[in-house]
Each structure stands twice: as C-alpha cells, then as structure tokens.
C-alpha cells in the first residue's frame, strides 16, 4: 500500500519525504487555505514547490464546479508538472470532465468526495486514475468508511477496473491498519497518523534495556 501525505504544508511534506516512505501528496482547497495560499499564481507556485519536494503523484484540486471551468483549470494545473493529478469532485460535470481528461487530453485524475459505491463505479467508468472515498467523514455520520473502501476494491477487482483506490480522510493510525486489511492501493494521511505506526511501548522498553546492559559493561 502506498502512502500519500494529505497536506499542503511544506515542512510536513519535507519531514515525510526525509523519512523515505512517502509516495505522493494529496491536497484540497481547505488544506491550501490553511497554509494561507491565496490567488492562482500563489497556488500554482505552491504546487510546483510540493512537486519539487516529493517524487510521486501530487493531487491538485479544481475549485470550478462547472464542466468548462474544470477543464480550463485542470489543464492549467496539469501543465505545472508531470506529477500533477487533477482532483475533480464526483458530480455530473466532474464525471464528464474526467472522461474528457482521460479519453482526449491524456490528463490523469483523482475523483474526490466519494461516499458511495455508485459514485466509485462512475469514477472508474469515466477512467479516473484514482478514486478517493472519504473514510473519516463517513465514520463521522455513523457510516462505515473502511467498509466502503473494501467494497470499492472488491468491485474494481471483480470488473478489472484500472482506477486505484485512495483511502482518504484518514484520521488516525488505526484507520491505516484497516486500509491494509481492505486492500486499499493508497492511504492518504496526516503525517501524525503515519508516525503513530511507530509507537509501541515494548520498543521503548527494549531500547532502554539494551542501553542499560551496554552501559553495565562499557561504563
Ligand atoms: C482527500 O484527498 C482529502 O484531501 C482529505 O483526505 C479530506 O480529509 P478530511 O475529511 O480530514 O478533511
């Protein structure tokens, strides 16, 4: 399973990349706003900076909600760097735009804001490179986000769709382990959730004991 960082924060991306286990980045307009990035020129410069930091795919989301706007914006985003994947919401105009990007423009897409198997089916039929079911936001409304990831993976496998499943809206370390069990292709996570995988008290106790034994002999 690949790890993407779900952030637009350059320091966190740098820290994750230095760790050596980050395969890409996803962003959204809220994450860009959190970094105080305003205006198209600044947004584009920020995406270029992210692409220079990380070796893999970087999802850049359109803010247009109409077909023509999505195409215009998506083409500009895709031209910024070969690793940019245009992130498009799962709406009627969005599905139409994904078809156009896939079939005619050779631009890779991430179909986002997916909350049902039906939406994931349309994303795959449109030829999206990635689909992003939002695990945490489904859990927030008493639905089972991980079950949706598992269902999408099973259906894509059964029908041999190429679209890769990014488990998104990951809130904590346990979600990551559940994504593994659901056979997600990618989990896009906050850095804190990934670092949480390292935590085990027996590791800390083991290090302390090894050092104490070493010191007994070596002083
Ligand atoms: C997906 O790519 C989104 O950027 C993200 O995972 C949304 O997560 P949230 O529900 O924590 O905002």
From TrEMBL:
Compartments in which it is found = Cytoplasm
Q: Name one GO cellular component term.
A: cytoplasm
Query: Gene3D superfamilies under this entry?
Result: Aldolase class I
An example Gene Ontology molecular-function term:
aldehyde-lyase activity
Q: Known InterPro entries for this protein? A: Aldolase_TIM, TAL/FSA, Transaldolase_3B/F6P_aldolase, Transaldolase_AS, TSA/FSA_arc/bac
Coarse class of the primary localization is cytoplasm
Give GO BP annotations, semicolon-separated: carbohydrate metabolic process; ketone catabolic process
Record key words, sorted: Cytoplasm, Schiff base
Is rRNA processing tagged as a keyword? no
Protein name according to UniProt? Transaldolase
Q: Which organism is it from?
A: Candidatus [Bacteroides] periocalifornicus
